[in-house]
Amino acid sequence: MKKVIAGLVVIVGLAAHQNRLAAAPETWTGHIGDSMCGAKHKPMGTMKMGDRECTEMCVKAGGKYVFITGGKVFQIADQKDKALALHAGHTVLLTGELKGDTITVSKIDMPKKEMPKGEMPKMDMPKAEKK
Ligand SMILES: [Cu+2]
C-alpha cells in the first residue's frame, strides 16, 4: 500500500512539473482597462464616466490596454488587437499565455450571460426626414 501511494505522489509531482514548463493557454475572467487607471478608474474632476469611456479616453491619452482580474493588473502584449478596443471596459473571458505579468492574448470573448441588452452595439437608424 505504501508503495502505491509513493508511486502516485511521483506521478502527480511529475504532472505538476510538466504543467509549469508548458506555456499552455489559460482563460481568465476579468475586464479590459487601461494602464493609467489600473485596477480602478479614478474620477476625473466632476466628469462622470463609465469604465468604457474612461478606458477609451485613457488609451487615447497614451495609456495602454491592460487586463484586470482579481484586483491584479496584467499587461497585454499585442496592443493593436482590435478586440481590445471592442471590449474596452467590458468584462471578458480572456484566453492567452501569461509570462511574468504580460499576457499574449489569443482570444477575447464576452461572457454570454453577462451581456446586458443595453450593451448591444447601437445601430444607425435612418433619421426621419422633416418636412
Ligand atoms: Cu481610465
CA radius of gyration:
21 Å
| pLDDT < 50 runs, ≥5 residues | none
* Small molecules in complex: copper (II) ion
Our estimate of the beta-strand percent is 25-35%
**Helix-residue proportion:** 25-40%
Q: What is the number of E strands?
A: 5
User: Which of globular, elongated, flat, extended, rod-shaped describes the shape?
Assistant: elongated
Q: How widely separated are the two ends?
A: 91 Å
Average pLDDT confidence is: 82
Sheet of most strands: 5 strands, mixed, barrel
Order of helices and strands: HEHEEHEE
Q: How are strands sequenced across the largest beta sheet?
A: 1-2-3-5-4
Number of helices: 3
The structural class is alpha+beta
Task: Based on the model shown, name its key terms.
single chain, 131 residues, alpha+beta, 27% helix, binds copper (II) ion
Write structural notes for this entry.
- The structure is a single chain.
- With 131 residues, this protein is of the alpha+beta class.
- The chain has a domain at 24-109.
- It is built from three helices and five strands; from the N terminus they run H-E-H-E-E-H-E-E.
- The longest helix has 20 residues, at 2-21.
- The protein starts with a helix and ends in a 22-residue tail after the last strand.
